[in-house]
Amino acid sequence: MKAAVLKSFGSPLVIENVPEPVLGTGEVIVDVVATRVLSYMNEVFSGERNYALDLPIIPGPGGIGRVRAIGPDATKLAVGDWLFCDPTVRSRDDIVAPDIALQGLTAAGPGGMRLQRHFRHGSYAERMRVPTENVKRLGAITSAEASQWCALGTALVPYGGFLAANLQPGETVLVSGATGNFGSAAVSVALAMGAACVVAPGRNDRILADLVRRFGDRVKPVKLTGNESDDCESMKRAAPGPIDCVFDIMPPSVSTTVVRAAIMTVRAYGRVVLMGGVGMAGGAGLDLPYPWIMRNCISIHGVWMYPPDAASRLIALARAGLLRLDEYEATAFDLDHVNEAVEHAAANAGPFKLTVIRP
Questions:
Q1: Residue 266: predicted pLDDT
Q2: What residue ranges of the chain have pLDDT lower than 70?
Q3: Are strands 197-202 and 172-176 parallel, antiparallel or unpaired?
Q4: What angle do helix axes 181-192 and 152-164 make, rounded to 10 degrees?
Q5: What pLDDT sits at residue 282?
Q6: Nearest-5° angle of CA 335, CA 60, CA 248?
Q7: Rounded CA separation 221/44 (Å)
Q8: CA angle at residue 115 from 1 to 36, to 5 degrees?
Q9: CB burial class (10 A; 0-12, 13-18, 19+) of residue 189?
């Protein structure tokens, strides 16, 4: 089959013919129809992000495809079914604290690297092998719709954060990083889950106005100034009442003061979700006041990805029309132009934009 292969960091992906994946028990072979190119894939492939990848590898985190072959332990799937392929692969021998690898992207720790040696290759190929529990049925869609359904992979990240925080309908949420690709998805996911209000801080007036245009007055934009105490008070004033949950998805380049200003807006007994990249590029850590956390009973959740059932639940929200995938504008490339797709994704990293490869 044809695939894009990363052979060394700092080199372009190479298009070549590789052996087809071999089916085993507990696995599904999927014909890949559409797959996302993350906006920072150029940083992964250059080595700048220092992601754990045992090269050479076919990259690509998840995607949309159809069942080509199933193992003997699958009882509901049928050849031809439309699927979302969840890239979050978990070890099967420790349900409490499984090792995790993101198929075709990275791995966490030695156990994650062991997983990556088997569920190694991702979706930048005509076919891929996926753990059976990682394929989620979509129901009937058209091939053209597959590109927009790739947005599930973006929306699942904040959805996992809000599930960890037990977000309830009617609550007020603040999204730190609301003007970014994952942050704007967090705004739409919070509203789909029933948030009464989403406070959306940022520096880009155009994007803030666009969030209000898309979602209405449940979104409360706040223009950040860079002054930590002033920004904290501005975000509090924008909310109609106490802020129940703060969700942070800021990238590694952002100062910790910006993140801290957002966190400190949460009410007593409130919840904070950390899913961003602060500190991953070095520099100062996130310095939060111990007495404030303790005396106000603040719950802080570090969250990486989402629980195993999250994808099916999010698909149901999209099918119900609560999560609007039609907000996303997809630009598609074929597999032969994968390097151009990586460049395009980096240059078009804004809210509700998708760069997609269609093998």
A1: 98
A2: none
A3: parallel
A4: 60
A5: 74
A6: 130
A7: 32
A8: 50
A9: buried
CB-based contacts of 109: which residues, under 8 Å, 6+ apart? 99
Which residues, in sequence order, are CB contacts of 72 under 8 Å at separation 6+? Answer: 25
Pairing relationship of beta strands 82-85 and 63-70 according to DSSP bridges? antiparallel
| pLDDT of the residue at 199 | 98
pLDDT for 301-357, tens place per residue?
999 999 999 999 999 999 999 999 999 999 999 999 999 999 999 999 989 999 999
* Order of all β-strands in the sheet with 100-102: 88-90, 100-102, 106-107
Q: What is the pLDDT of residue 285?
A: 82
Strands 243-248 and 266-274: parallel
pLDDT at 277: 86
284 burial (CB, 10 Å; 0-12 / 13-18 / 19+) is exposed
CA angle, 62 as apex, 61 and 63 as ends, to 5°? 125
pTM, two decimal places:
0.94
Task: Say if CB 214 and CB 323 are below 8 A apart.
Answer: no
Predicted confidence at residue 279, as pLDDT, reads 79
Helix axes 181-192, 205-215, angle to 10 degrees: 20
Residues 6+ away with beta carbon under 8 Å from 146? 33, 34, 64, 82, 358
Rounded CA-CA distance 31/161 in Å is 30
